[in-house]
């Protein structure tokens, strides 16, 4: 399964083995294991839920910052009511690897939606 726009790409290829999900944004990419991708999906759901709880109370130009830590992920949403970016930090539970991702406006909202759609389409 593939979702792609000009500045980002999301690929699921279960046949690939251990690292079967790829997220590319601009000039970098990272591969995730299935359980890492699932935990990212759950983190993004929680972040989106918190954002939706306060979105209607925000003025259009009001700045917002939401932070969530749900090991092995940390997420920070920053922006306004209708446009925001995401910073994600991953540190594996086995402490074998760690990385940081930044998804700028408008990639953050589009990619979050596609991750949700991809995970929910799996059997």
UniProtKB/TrEMBL annotation:
<dbReference type="InterPro" id="IPR014947">
    <property type="entry name" value="DUF1818"/>
</dbReference>
<dbReference type="GO" id="GO:0003677">
    <property type="term" value="F:DNA binding"/>
</dbReference>
<protein>
    <recommendedName>
        <fullName>DUF1818 domain-containing protein</fullName>
    </recommendedName>
</protein>
<dbReference type="InterPro" id="IPR009044">
    <property type="entry name" value="ssDNA-bd_transcriptional_reg"/>
</dbReference>
<dbReference type="GO" id="GO:0006355">
    <property type="term" value="P:regulation of DNA-templated transcription"/>
</dbReference>
<dbReference type="Pfam" id="PF08848">
    <property type="entry name" value="DUF1818"/>
</dbReference>
């Amino acid at each position: 399964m593939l979702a792609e726009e000009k500045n980002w790409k999301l690929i699921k290829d279960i046949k690939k083995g251990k690292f079967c999900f790829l997220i590319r944004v601009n000039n970098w990419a990272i591969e995730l294991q299935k359980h890492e991708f699932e935990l990212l999906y759950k983190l993004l759901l929680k972040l989106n839920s918190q954002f939706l709880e306060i979105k209607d109370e925000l003025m259009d130009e009001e700045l917002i910052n939401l932070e969530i830590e749900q090991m092995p992920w940390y997420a920070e949403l920053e922006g306004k009511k209708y446009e925001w970016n995401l910073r994600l930090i991953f540190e594996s539970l086995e402490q074998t690897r760690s990385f940081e991702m930044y998804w700028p406006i408008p990639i953050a909202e589009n990619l979050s939606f596609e991750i949700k759609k991809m995970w929910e389409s799996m059997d």
